[in-house]
Amino acid sequence: MSGEERRWSFLALACLAVVLSLTTWFSATAVIPELKARWQLGAAAAAWLTNGVQAGFVFGALASSILGLPDRWRLNRMMAGAAALAGAANLVLLIEPGAVVVILARFVTGIALAGVYPPAIKLMATWFRKERGLALGLLIAALTLGSALPHLVRAIGAGIDWRVVVSASSLCAFVSAAIFARALHEGPFPFARSVVDPRQVGAIIRDRPVMLANLGYFGHMWELYAMWGWFLAYAGAAFAAGNPIFSGNVSLLTFAVIAVGALGAAGGGLLADRVGRCNTTALSMALSGACALLIGVFFDGPSWLFVAVALVWGVSVVADSAQFSAAVTELAEPHLVGSALAFQMGIGFAITIVAIWMVPLFGGAIGGWRWAFLLLVPGPAIGAAAMLALRADRSALKLAGGRR
Predict the structure, then answer these.
(1) What does 181-197 look like in DSSP terms, one character per residue?
(2) Which one is predicted more confidently, 31 or 169?
(3) Which of 90, 166, 295, 373 is placed for a possible disulfide with 24 were both Cys, Cβ 3.0 to 4.6 Å?
(4) Residue 336: pLDDT above 70?
(5) Where are the alpha helices (DSSP H) in 366-401?
(6) Model's pTM, two decimal places?
């Protein structure tokens, strides 16, 4: 196998392994209604079945960044151990130990997944110096499809026992651990290793180009997960208001809107490698911000315009996602790349928790769902401004082989 073929085969394996491990995160979306009914959970406790993973991921990513774990440990071993821990923590749900223990288990699952996702970005960057944007875009495309699958399960798979879903997701995580341990390793462009130094977080924060890329990512994350998380409820409210979208099958529409983002992530990576990361991310956020504005205009119809705006939003909202991480791998000091990625994602996912919490509150305050997504518009606006500021910085010449 040639070096070119080998790196793409490694990318395919990495995409498979990361998605398999993250099924322990995605699966909760598919079974929350069953768990809520079986364990008589209130709305707050049910929300923490998902938010617990999110909070654990934030804690794990920031701790990993402070300790410099992705820059000190062998990446494939770190990811294998983390994936196995995620699978084991997920199995706790089968014991039905009560709400407190289950939420704690979900928190541990999130901590474990912070040892999979950010290191996977760094691992793939060691295989791709050229076409790095496309490679990481394909990885995000795979994750986007994984995020969409629970909505497809709910649309066409009613009646599946929740225990089967939980068991299958843990099995997937264990398989991914084996792939990480036995089939993946760092590529021909490794980054320098570091030692434990809590001051390295300060070095990341003081690095202006890296923080501009991070600010772009933070604006992107303010929008992305809140849109993904609340689109089902938003489309349901539009249908209830008289918009005959998808004949009322809003789960299928939500699957389509999220899944089409896989095309955006791959296309965004291809575009970024050719016209520049700053240009691509700014354009993507301009489009997604416009869609957040326009979706309310067509809330009550015509339905084809509502669906069209939703699909364009689904493509554009994630088209830039991988490029912020790609930018960090190119801008950060080589011995800090892993920690810088973990820092970026830790803060980014913390922002998603706030945005997800605020969207329905904002909607309630302004009289309903129709204009609720206006709250998300500042995210892409700030993010696009940050990436345009980065484009004007000389350091942007490090991006995508000199393509800003």
Answers:
(1) HHH----SSPPPP----
(2) 169
(3) 90
(4) yes
(5) 378-391
(6) 0.86
